[in-house]
Amino acid sequence: MSNTTPRAIAFKSWRRLNKQSTKAVASAANIPYTSLASFVQGRTQNISAAMEQKIADAYGCAIEDIFVSPKEKARGINNDIPIIGRAAASVTHGYYINEYPDGGHPILPAWPAESVAIDVDGDSMEPRFYDGERLVFGAQTPDPSPYVGREVLAYLGDADGRTLIKILERNKLSGGWNLRSYNPRHETLEDVHIEWIRPFEGMRAI
Questions:
Q1: Per 3-state DSSP, what percentage of the chain is helix, strand, and coil (rounded to 5)?
Q2: What's the structural domain count of the chain?
């Protein structure tokens, strides 16, 4: 199953429309071809904010013109993405979310409507995520099934109370859900109840 994100899909559509190969874009923006190719092919789920900006600058357009699909634009772009908390780590919880008491504040640039952002706090999520980055997650949905194999923000329900950043997987025995961490210190949570998830869309540096 492909792990290609909506931003990568939008980029590929823009590239085809403008008759540009991945190699040509990487060359024009002076960014590593291997990084861009991995993003396009779904091997990695994002490129850095700096790379997105270099591509936009190279072609004289805005980031959202390349990395946000026409469908999302038609729904409307939300420039005021609420930052709903910070992601830290613990031995027992893995990557967990502490909510901001004030409900967050807006960040730029534009992302699809209904997105939310999480601040990374500390170095415990490296090398996947780094201190000071903001992780953007898409619209909340009660159906995790389209996002198997992808990183998600998952709420485990009122009885558990945790909200975690994990990789969503199918439990092969029960058909339910597993949540796996990149960090080997954190065990996979098996056959968990998931109230809702938000799919990981990308990141922005603070």
A1: 25, 30, 45
A2: 2
Radius of gyration of the chain (CA): 17
Helix, strand or coil for residue 81?
A: coil
Q: Which domain holds residue 43?
A: 6-74
| Residues 24 and 126 placed together within one structural domain of the fold | no
On whether residue 1 sits in a domain, the answer given is: no
What are φ and ψ of residue 93, in 5° steps?
-100, -15
CB contact at 8 A, 9 and 49: no
* Co-location of 16 and 45 in the same domain: yes
What pLDDT, in 10s, does the model give residues 164-174?
Answer: 888 899 998 89
* 189 DSSP β-pair partners: 179
**Distance between CA 133 and CA 148 in Å, rounded?**
24
User: Distance between CA atoms of 113 and 36, rounded to whole angstroms?
Assistant: 25
Residue identified by tokens 């027992």 is 92
28 is written with which tokens?
């024009």
The answer to whether residue 110 sits within a structural domain is yes
Angle at 106 between CA 3 and CA 111, to 5 degrees: 30
User: Which one of 74, 93, 122 terminates a domain?
Assistant: 74
Predicted TM-score (pTM) of the model is: 0.61
pLDDT tens sequence across 13-26: 999 989 999 999 99
Intra-chain end-to-end CA distance of the chain, in Å:
32
Predicted confidence (pLDDT) per residue in 61-98, tens digit: 888 889 887 766 655 555 567 777 777 665 444 455 55
Token code pair at residue 92? 């027992």
